[in-house]
Amino acid sequence: MEFTVVFQSITLIAMLIFIGAMLSKTFPMNQDTRQMFISLIVNIAMPSIILSSIFNVEITKDSFKLIVIVFILSIVINIGGIALGGLFTRIFYPKSTKKVEVAILSGLGNTGYIGIPLCAVLIGPEGALFAAIFDAGVDFTLWTVGVFLLQKEKKLTLNMFKSMINVPMLAIVFGLIAAYFGYRPPIIFVELIDRLAGLAVPMAMFYIGATVMTLQRSKVNQSSTKMWIPISVKLFILPIVLAVMINFVHLEKFVVQTVIIQSMMPTLALSSILFAKYSGDEDMGAVTTVVSTIAALMTIPFMIYLIDLFFAF
Hints:
Blueprint lengths: L2 H21 L7 H25 L5 H32 L6 H9 L3 H12 L2 H26 L7 H5 L4 H14 L6 H11 L2 H13 L4 H29 L7 H11 L7 H7 L4 H30 L2
């Protein structure tokens, strides 16, 4: 992989986060503002980049097989990360009441806001497509395993499955059905989708930058003691373990690259929202997300270089 492109992409992300942080000084980052950002990113930008990726890649029967494989791999990798986070928490903090939160933060990464755009830049439309499939696996794990673990009464409910139905997931289903039947929208709609897809990276990074400026030192101090576990698992341990194991699976090189890049993404941006909904530690989710995102600006190029050096990435 061309490392100049990696460093340029990471540097671009850092610059966008900085711009978002500076912009936050010109407006109040309240609940309404957060909701506006989240709505634009989740309901417009992310579905657009998913559909843009699908409409710009020729999908064949072999592609569908790879899609299923990547989706399953994503679920396995996510659950593996959750298990590692839970194991480390039990070892180092056996009396902690935040074992579930730490485990979830260790397994689920920001594969949507950062992963899909980054794979699109580094690998191309095919990378964006399979990054979107990987992200669908993260969503599936989040709203099934994640919700199940956070519930006081461990049970499967209809509402849990309803929460899995979101606009990005519908975009994946619609796009794949359209691709399977060879349907391609009129060019004006394809161009519109491509333009809207361009919102994904700036909007997501502006949101993260603005969130950084709202953090309170007391929240950071309270969450810092256990924060090293999800950061270590997500940014270092999980991608290295995956790089070793995936050598035993014969897949296309761009698929391997996509899966490994997605595995080293920082902590899931929606974790604080999930924790707030199910009575978890919302502050821990927000602080870990921001700190791991900042750390990832340095660790992602380093990990890509390290894995490429030893595993012919």
